[in-house]
Amino acid sequence: MTPITLEKRGHQAWITLNRPQVKNMLNGECFIGLADAWEEVRADDGIRVAVLTAAGEEHFCCGGDLGEVIPLWTGVRQPANEVEERLKADPMITDRVMLKEKPLYKPVIAAINGHALGGGTELLQATDIRIAAQHAQFSLPEPKVGIVPGAGSMVRLTRQLPWAHAMRILLGGEPVSADDALHMGLVSEVVPLAQLQARAEHYADSICRQAPLALQAIKRTALETHTLPWADAFRFEMEQAGAIMMSKDAREGPRAFKEKRQPQFTGE
Predict the structure, then answer these.
(1) Known catalytic membership, residue 122
(2) Is the pLDDT confidence value at 67 over 80?
(3) What pTM did the predictor assign?
(4) Which of 29, 142, 237, 239 is catalytic?
């Protein structure tokens, strides 16, 4: 069974965590598979949106497979195969998996089919639109086993949520329900599990009807200006807006509106 699958559906890339028998925990093959999948999404100009989901009906991702990955990185044991050799030689792979080292400016949708614990909750913070099944839960229990959620959460969560909500998740360790996550702003929408796939498809289809360069510029500006002073942020925004105004898509949009037809955006 392939632990990470990537299926291209037209302009969409559907990435699936595929270890339901072990709660979709991230082992070495998952780290490599996810890092490679994100790079393929980034490099393929035909892909306009990525959807991240998981196999099964109970767990989205219950974090890293601590028994396999942590001892390798801490030096407790030596690599036993080619996958572990690559992990040992690339300790920064987590940054690529969590989209920290190199941001992905294409929109990413998360279809959260169940519990997201530890690394699962950390992975979600690298996505943009997050749709959760009603039974999903979220938590960062790392301090209970003597470690920290160091794959992005200690920085991202307090920037994405109000302080008190972020610290409840970071310090409390107790699971947060899907409804509470919606109230906090951790997820965008909560739906019955049976509707999750359709809602993810709805958002992905909507994104594919819009100008891809414009969407990437919007996400790039939101990410890059988040901590800049206003004057610098507005300057960056204007640079992005100016570049988009020179694109072929920026001419196609108004032309299609005037001609009362759907625009045919090409990403140029």
Answers:
(1) yes
(2) no
(3) 0.94
(4) 142
